[in-house]
Amino acid sequence: MEKKYPHFTLRTLLSFLLVFLLHRSTEAQQICSIPGATPPTIRENNAVGAVVTTITTEEGVTIIIASNPADSFGLNGNDLTAVKVLDYETKTSFTIDLLCTKGDQFLTLIVVVLIENVNDNPPVFAESQYTLNVDELSPVGKSVGAIVATDADKDRLYYSLVPDTEGFRLQENSPNILVQHVLDYDAATSVTLILSAQDTPTSTPPSFTATATIHVNIMDIDNRPPWFQPCTETIVDMSKICLSSGYTGTVNLTEQVVGALPLLPGPVHAIDGDKGLNVAIMYRFPTGSESDIFQINQNTGDITMSKAADIAGPLTLTVLALQTSNGDQFATTTVTIVVVKKSVNPPQFEKMEYEGFISADAGVDSMVLESKASNRPLKVQAKDTDYADGINPDVRYEVQGSTEFSITPQGFILMTKNVMPGTVSMNLHAIDSSNAESTTASLTVEVMPEGALGAPGGYGPGDMAALGASLAVLLVISMVVIGLLVFRIQKGKTDWRKLSEANIFRSSLGKGPGELKDGVQYTNEGFQNDGDTSSVGSKGPEEMDGKRSIGNGVTSRAVEENVMKVSAPLYSNLLLDTSSLAGSDKADSEKEVKPILTKERRVEEGYKSVWFKEDIDPNAKEEVVIIPDNGEREGDDDDDDEEEEGFREEEEEYDNSSPQTPKVLFSDADMDDGRGVRFEDSEKEKFQTSDL
Which residues fall in a compositionally biased region of kind Polar residues (predicted)? Predict the structure, then answer.
């Protein structure tokens, strides 16, 4: 039977054993157990001896540990304790077998202990520094790279990038770095960023952060043509360009320059606009050299002459610069060569050193003076002996080494900004623009404190005040003189009115009963100084000092200048009385003049008359002269004759030079003072009047 059923017997035995164990286990459950329906837990990084759980037992039950992984747990009575510091990152759970016995009862109690994770580990980057590369002009949003950190606690990490204004940013909820705006190699060749990873969304503890340094290199690309140097960089829209003004040079007519031509602002030179690439540049004349006169070195750009220029004037060359590796990147510029006639002598300043002075308070655009004691502006000049007068119209001036002063084309120095007192040194440069020949002189300007200038020879505030006072005095004097002139003019008008009255009187003397007598000339100055303010030209004897007197205070000079001369036929008119004159035809203005011819003397006050000592033959051609009377009685005739003889001697010179025509002469003496009339013929015969 055994051979026939070997497995049956073994199975039967195992079945009985299992039934026995289950029966014994059912009985043992009643002697020990674990409280609760869930496995016990303990936080990692626990304290040694921390209680994991307490086993529930019947009275008299003994508990022992049958299985203890790594000897991490122990029993303290019915308490299951951790005898080591547990680490979640090392092991997340433990299974412990406990054997409970009570008499002949026993029970194996399996306890599973779970380790609770704690945030006790910071994030970690694989490296502390990273290097990334990105091309300039990359599109916005392009990924540069992703730098990921790890956390042993398996926590979610939160990333940040600083600074966030250098052209890069992070993709949301990711360590992926993106291009934020267009990058320019010339603006920045590299950027350094700090990437942070934090295991909590906030910094509330416990929180751990890890950082990494990221170097982003901006790579230059071939996007610009060559740039001729020097040039001015500028941005047009999104592109950067460099503007060059070209080159200039000068050569003499019919002369060939050996070697490279000297040019301004320097030799022809171009660089790759992409400085990071710095591709080699070559040079050409795109349309050939100018009349085969000039050649250019393909590698250096130096321009040389193959022969002399035979025509004066500017020659313009076009120079092409292009990359050796990419002919599509090229640029052009112009080179202007001025062919001039050779100058024998360059311009030269009159002095090699100049000194000027200016006041600190002179103000902008004030001229520098040549000395402290003069207001003469300082003028510098460069002479060119190639010109006869030394003045080269092509010379221009400039100031070097100072921005406080400038120079005019005429050579005057101007202050361009306010300068503190002290000394300013600079150089003066004179350039012949026709051939680029130049000369240099030094200038030292002493800026004087306020009020320091204005010494003798200058015009200071005091001088200007004195000048103003002088002008004021001159103005007052001028006004006084003008007033006097106006007064004299007004008085002259009155005198001319009186002369008009005298003309009326002359007309009355020149007329007969009905006809006009010619040849009447007279003066009426003898009727002045006797109280008649309406008479003309009064002059008394006392006003004739310095003249030899004839008669009663009348000089021969006065007789010559102030007598009225008439021809002999007028004698009859002199004998006319007042009634005969009054009967003649006169104008209204003439009627205001009273006749003064009479045969009898009148002594009434204010009455003027001409009286005669004896009758006069009208037909005799004799000269009548009015002479002053001494006012004495008729018995004084002898004295009058003596005075008259003196008068005759004074008149001889006059008579010899004038025609010997009988004349009537009226003296300018006052008739009220006893003055009379004298007649003279060609033989100088005279008739003397006397007092009545």
Answer: 524-537
Q: Burial letters for 490-527: b for 16+ Cβ neighbours within 10 Å, e otherwise?
A: eeeeeeeebeebbbbbbbbbbbeeeeebeebebbbbbb
Q: Which amino acid is at 500?
A: S
Q: What is the pTM of this model?
A: 0.41
Tokens of 229: 């140097």
Average pLDDT over residues 514-538: 45
Q: Which amino acid is at 158?
A: Y
| Strand, helix or coil for residue 267 | coil
Cα–Cα dist 573/130, whole Å:
146
Q: What is the DSSP letter of 310?
A: -
CB-based contacts of 425: which residues, under 8 Å, 6+ apart? Answer: 401, 402, 442, 443, 444, 445
**Burial profile 91-114: b = 16 or more Cβ within 10 angstroms, e = fewer:** eeebebebbbbbeebbbebebebe
- At 504-524, the pLDDT tens digits run 766 665 555 444 444 444 444
Give the tens place of pLDDT for each residue, 574-587.
333 444 434 444 44
- Could you give the angle at the alpha carbon of 325 between the alpha carbons of 324 and 331, nearest 5°? 55
Residue 571 in tokens:
């004698």
Handedness of CA 79, 80, 83, 89 (dihedral sign): negative
Q: Under 8 Å CB-to-CB from 303, ≥6 apart: which residues?
A: 249, 260, 261, 263, 268, 294, 295, 296, 297, 317, 335
Distance CA 646, CA 632 (A): 19
The answer to whether residues 335 and 246 touch, using CB atoms and an 8 Å cutoff, is yes
